[in-house]
Amino acid sequence: MIYYFSGTGNSYAAAKKLAAGLGEDLMDIAVAVQEGNYEHTLTAGERLGFVFPVYAWAPPKAVTEFVKNLELYYSGDPYIFAVCTCGSSAGRTMDLFEKALEENGLVLDSGFSLVMPDNCITLFEVDSDEEVAEKFETAEKTLNHIIRAIKLGWSDFFRVKRGKFSGVLTKVVNPLFAMGAMKTKPFYVTDDCISCGLCEKICTSGCIELTAGRPVWTADTCNMCLACINRCPAKAIQYGKKTAKRGRYVHPIYQTKENGEMTE
Ligand SMILES: Cc1cc2nc3c(=O)[nH]c(=O)nc-3n(C[C@H](O)[C@H](O)[C@H](O)COP(=O)(O)O)c2cc1C
Ligand code: SF4
Ligand code: SF4
């Protein structure tokens, strides 16, 4: 079983390729959380994998909470791996993820980072088309290596691009991010909204409701997956003052039609 969490499709696309290469099933963590579905029984030889994005040099809180609460039934010693997707560097993300697993009595055998296009448009401009193409090409090769390592059952094997100052970024900057930057208040919708309902459907926190055809954020904080703002087909969602001038990023696997209908 491969559990994944994804706002704009990078982690989903990686999880899908891993699932196909390893012959495992896929489960969306956001859906599992919303349905209260924390149970899984591993069959003989079944591996357990997790694929998720890096948020401020740490795993998304939704992912660590899920892992801590996962009710796993198994016999023997299941192989457990994790892949974190990031725009440039993961910091100590994998260390924190490993710790969350350990709190649930589980041991991580291997961990990898996968550099993919950056979706954090609340802070940065999107990558150029050339950067996106380069990242996809390298990621494809990296994923093939990851599949090989997992098939060989490599244990205590970690290939994570931590980047510079990883300890400070994860231990000092991330807690500040968790306190301040996950607020929904700066979100707003413009008259470009076509009332397609996609934002309500895809919100990983389940905190967007359409009222009179327009999204309303019903919680003060959210996962900050940036699915709503990046995937809105009318570019009608903004966050604060800077996103109006920035591009949007969606992995091709999550592209939608002009009316907001999902293709995947
Ligand atoms: C709130 C937020 C924080 C992020 N922080 C980081 C970071 O610390 N390091 C990094 O390299 N990328 C960072 N990113 C970029 C994402 O990790 C990257 O684009 C990821 O592949 C997105 O995955 P998804 O498409 O499955 O949602 C961040 C993105 C968001 C939305
Ligand atoms: S996804 Fe965009 S266009 Fe569709 S309802 Fe939400 S804000 Fe409106
Ligand atoms: S409100 Fe937007 S950014 Fe926040 S969890 Fe929902 S889709 Fe993600």
Characteristic key phrases:
binds flavin mononucleotide, six-stranded parallel sheet, 2 domains, 33% helix, Alpha-Beta Plaits, two-stranded parallel ribbon, 8 helices, Rossmann fold, 18% strand, 264 residues, binds iron/sulfur cluster
Explain how this protein is built:
The longest helix is centred in the middle third of the chain and has 23 residues, at 129-151. The relative contact order is 0.16. This protein is globular. Helix 1 runs parallel beside helix 5 and helix 3 runs parallel beside helix 4 (93-103). The chain has helices at 10-22, 29-35, 61-69, 93-103, 129-151, 166-180, 198-202, 227-231, and strands at residues 2-4, 26-28, 39-41, 48-53, 71-73, 80-86, 110-115, 157-159, 187-189, 208-211, 214-217, 237-239. It folds into two domains: 2-177, Rossmann fold (3-Layer(aba) Sandwich), CATH 3.40.50; 187-254, Alpha-Beta Plaits (2-Layer Sandwich), CATH 3.30.70.20. The chain is α/β, with parallel strands linked by helices. The protein has a six-stranded parallel beta sheet with strand order 2-1-4-6-7-8, with helices on both faces. Strands 3-5 form a two-stranded parallel sheet. Bound molecules: flavin mononucleotide and iron/sulfur cluster (SF4) (2 copies). One iron/sulfur cluster is lined by residues 189, 193-199, 215, 232-234, 236-237, 260.
